[in-house]
Amino acid sequence: MLQRICTPMKIRILFIAILSLTSFTLKSQAFFVPSDTLISKRFNAALGFGVATYTGFSIGLYNTWYKKFDQSSFHLFNDWGEWNQMDKAGHIHTAYLQGVLCYKGTKWTGMNKDNSILTGMICGTLFQTTIEIMDGYSSKWGFSLGDIGANLVGTGIFAAQQYYWNDQRISLKVSSIPIHYPEYILVSDDGKTQSSLAMRARNLYGKNYLENFLKDYNAQTYWASINIHSFLDTNNKWPKWLNLALGYGAENMFGGFNNHWAENNTLFYLDAIRYPRMRQFYIGFDLDLPKLNPKNPILKTVCSVFNIFKIPSPALEINTEGQIKFHFLR
Fold first, then answer.
1. Is pTM, for the whole model, over 0.90?
2. For the chain, which has fewer Cβ within 10 Å, the N-terminal or C-terminal residue?
3. Structure confidence by residue, pLDDT tens digits, 50-68
4. Residue 23: what are its φ and ψ, rounded to 5°?
5. Domain definitions of the chain by residue range
């Protein structure tokens, strides 16, 4: 079964690239300071940027990905059991990210808080729903109600925090630690063909770090990075920039629903005892980059953009195989 490439990751990288490019090419630091009142030039610029980004992304994604596969009439697809719900975690994270970025963009124009929150929710939902509609017309996949639900959870997490706390006390983040897959020889069901885990991983997850980062659900971990200082008394001594991070990951996944696959018209079955599909739960620490409070507006923007990534640090893992592991970096 072909893996559905993690389109939330693609969107995330696209947003980072565009925002980073914009940040470093602008010369005036004052440009980055949000306005207290609505500035029509900024609003028009943000609107044009948003429309261009949405249009370009939609056309580009369709032509580079969906156009390659057979189309069909619109239909539903139940993918809830795929990838131990790692794809759903990706949808939550991406919808949350889009909500936050669009909110900050509209606040930069001078739009008021409530309208900025509403804009963030609408934009996050629009981007994600467009992908689901494309899935719905693809014969290999379909419109996923589970994905739609995950998208709404993501935008809801953003909106609720911004409305009640005027802050993102709990940031949703991602990390990806590369995995070295063994060249362990696998023999097909009919005993005539050989493959390996490394080959299967390359076919599924790509051959370089960027592809692995985008696709490899075994390597990805999604985090709720909790700013402890913001939940305590204002005079507490907990560092403002040090967060407690709770993570979710999965391992030993070499197919969407199970570890059976076809290769060169032969079937391969992975030993479930040797390679159990497991869920992983982590606890560790993280940095809240904007809380480092850089004075330079450009650095503030950079910290805000890169705050979607979990900073690698020691973490404790508990998995569904009953194991407890310590990771020096996760």
1. no
2. N
3. 888 889 888 887 887 788 8
4. -60, -45
5. 1-166, 169-330
